[in-house]
Write a structure and sequence with these properties.
Elements (H helix, E strand, L loop, with lengths): L9 E6 L2 E6 L15 E7 L6 H4 L3 E3 L8 E3 L12 E12 L4 E4 L9 E7 L2 H4 L17 H4 L11
Antiparallel strand pairs: 1-2, 1-8, 2-7, 3-6, 3-8, 4-5, 6-7
Length: about 160
């Protein structure tokens, strides 16, 4: 089996001023022509969940209140994964092209989480008009914007 080498392009920064993607100096030129996009898809590493034990967790016992009693890890958004990668769509607030800092509205990553890649969100490739979801989560918000006002704490068993 082939292994892959992945090199972070930056880190997530969460502080009193907000949430940011801070790029390594060498990747700042890659921001060119990003202006005009309102959102990004951010691929980041779940570094706080990266150990052999967590990589071997393949099932979860009802992580969501209305979910089936046992779920395969691929049917969840759990940080425990064979390859602890995460994908989050984020809204861009501002881009500092000179210093390689993107301020974002929100990301479910911890401070200092490594960023593997960013891609512009484009509706023609990233949006699904009528996605299908199981009955146990069909009451969840239908958009990122609606999610901010949703009581997510009432959905989880952890």
């Amino acid at each position: 089996m082939q292994n892959f080498k992945v090199k972070p392009i930056g880190k997530i920064s969460v502080n009193e001023d907000g949430m940011f993607i801070k790029l390594e100096q060498e990747y700042i030129p890659a921001l060119q022509a990003l202006n005009g996009f309102s959102h990004l898809n951010v691929l980041w590493w779940l570094s706080d969940s990266d150990n052999e034990e967590m990589r071997n967790i393949l099932i979860a016992e009802q992580p969501y209140k209305k979910a089936p009693a046992i779920m395969g890890i691929f049917a969840t958004r759990s940080p425990f994964r064979p390859n602890p990668m995460a994908l989050t769509a984020v809204q861009i607030i501002t881009i500092d092209y000179e210093n390689g800092v993107i301020q974002i509205a929100y990301i479910d990553a911890n401070d200092n989480s490594p960023v593997l890649d960013i891609k512009p969100y484009t509706p023609s490739l990233d949006r699904v008009e009528t996605p299908g979801v199981p009955e146990w989560c069909c009451h969840w918000p239908k958009s990122l914007e609606e999610s901010g006002n949703f009581d997510w704490g009432n959905e989880f068993n952890f």
